[in-house]
Amino acid sequence: MSGVDPAGRATELREQIEHHRRRYYQEDAPEVADVEYDELVGELAAIEAAHPELAFEGSPTRTVGAPPSGAFAEVRHELAMMSLDNVMSFEELVAWGQRVERSLAGLGGEDGAAAGPARFVCEPKIDGLALSLRYEDGELVRAATRGDGRVGEDVTANVRTIASVPERLALPDEELPRRLEVRGEVYLPISAFEELNRQQAETGQRLFANPRNSAAGSLRQKDPAVTASRPLSFFAYQLAAADGGAAGPEGAAVGSHSAALELVRRCGLPVNPLIEAVEGLEAVYAYCARALERRHELDYDIDGVVVKLDELALQRALGATSHAPRWAVAYKFPPEERTTVLEAILVSIGRTGRATPFAKLRPVVVAGSTVGLASLHNEDQVRLKDVREGDTVIVRKAGDVIPEVVAPVLSQRPAGAPAWRFPATCPGCGGPLVRLDGESDTYCVNLDCPAQQVQRIIHFASRGAMDVEGLGESRVTLLVATGRVADVADLYGLEASSIEGLEGFAALSAANLVAAIDASRQRGLARLLVGLSIRHVGPTVATSLAAAVDGLDELMAAEEATLATVEGVGSTIAASVAAFFGSARNRAVVEKLRGAGVSFASARATGGRRLLEQTLAGRSVVVTGTLAGFTREEAEGAISERGGKAPGSVSRRTLAVVVGEEPGASKLAKAEQLGVALLDEAGFVTLLETGELPPVEPPPPPGASASR
User: Fold this and answer.
1) Is residue 642 a part of any domain in this protein?
2) End of a domain among 282, 298, 332?
3) CA distances (Å), 489 to each of 44, 211, 328, 447, 595, in order?
4) pTM of this structure
5) 541-599: per-residue pLDDT in tens?
6) Buried/exposed code over 574-602 (b: 16+ C-beta within 10 A; e: otherwise)
7) Is 125 annotated in the active site?
8) Exactly one of 125, 308, 385, 667 is catalytic; which is it?
9) How many folded domains does the chain comprise?
10) Same domain, yes or no, for 543 and 600?
11) What is the pLDDT of residues 239-260, one digit of tens each?
């Protein structure tokens, strides 16, 4: 903070935070990702902590949400709907838990900490819209948004259209509380969001940015019929008040948060089945690790885990600050969305000639890695998202998925920014780009396009195809640019003397590359079919085709109708295969490969003999995290090609777990519990080659530290 005026910076931060709160809560059109908003609040909190004279009761660090927009009638909450403090790591979670334990120990008496670890309730933190439901004598009488925590908006008419919110509680009359108030989250399931965007695309309308904004916008419609057309869902997460009936007088019969949620379930309100009560902070972290690993398996977005003390008496004893309870915290996952500037929209040419638009971004860290490029998929997606050069855009990178531009921030669009138009000519060769009838993709139709040549050869040499060690993009580009290679068959004519002296090639590296190319001649028909870049033919289809014939000559001679009968092929793929081998140019490349001694034989032709030694026959190897030399599909394919299995979970039958970057914590924990060997990538390669577990030290589990 050296050289920065704290008072001036605090004022600037408060203005920015209030602006972003209004955009998020009132207008459902945020301009920054959640993590960037959290960083602004964190910076302001740090200034106020260092300069207490700058803090005041109305500061954004001490308030929640945003005032009602005026679009709906106002509702005053009898019990404030508070926010939650955030923690971003296991160490911060431990620090929060230790503060809780110290506070409980200091209370003494019946509200003091019990012997043994504290009991917590963990629940997925759904990225939706907070809602309060009030029932009187079993009937729904009011539904309200959080607003600023004290005053929300009356959205009762719209909430009545949500199928998962009951109009009447399910309890018998004698058990009905006189008054019941439940808090929860309204969300739009991911499947419903995708269907909504599919409908938007079909009608040429702008795509929605994400499920959270879609849910908020759907709930806050003036016309309930619009809300009814959107399949919103609801999960209850808190019993705020209950008088009489099954809860007893003033809720006295409900002594814990978990018991309160059970009452809510009995009332017929949906409660997330993944909510779990656990003992101690180690169990809390294990839950958080499992939730992080499976976040993309769920049909709703989650951005963390909410952790609460279970005993209500202890919650009351700890109390709250001006904006958040001391007995609960939100463990936030690493951010998967950021905002940055889209500097240019460019087009890449793939091995089949497909022209794919992509965004050149101002570099930004997303999900732990720096992102400078992101996919825009095709011409229609660019038009529907309406992203333009110079836009501030939301960038998303979920798990191992390639980064993509989600949407522009329209409020920050430069004045006069023109709509982007798909180029008419190929950036690689200058030839025409053609969009095929009935397809969303555009193609360069020049088979001599150097961009296609490079990409076809790179694919041919990849691990999933002919697996030529040491032949990556830079080397392929060099070989094509210097005229030494024009197609995949030319690789087999290379001699060490012909490439020695090129940039990056000394005598040894040249000899090693030629030896690696020579070794690829015997990879087999399935890998060759993958390497030929036949449209729609990936590893699975290639394996089916290779199993149906004795060799490539039989496949090339097969009628299209015959090909379509092969399991997993069908008419579209059959037509693509027939068209590929019907091309004189492609046939010429195949004949060059034959002359170079590349094997055309299938496993069937060799009496079922496999071309790779079955080093893993009958054994299971689990892969978790990102590997440098293999995609997930390639790693699992390498296991299966050697007779092994690559299941998605660890069991007592698992031989080893291969651990890459950002591994699944629950898989590591299970492996350690069962004593399963943990391998790094080098150990994995050794295992593939020998079938033996190498003597390596297992990698440490994520989050391991002296404080754990």
Assistant:
1) yes
2) 332
3) 62, 48, 64, 15, 9
4) 0.59
5) 888 898 889 899 999 999 999 999 988 788 989 999 999 999 898 999 999 999 999 99
6) bebbbebbeeeebeebbebbeebebbbbb
7) yes
8) 125
9) 5
10) yes
11) 998 886 555 444 446 789 999 9
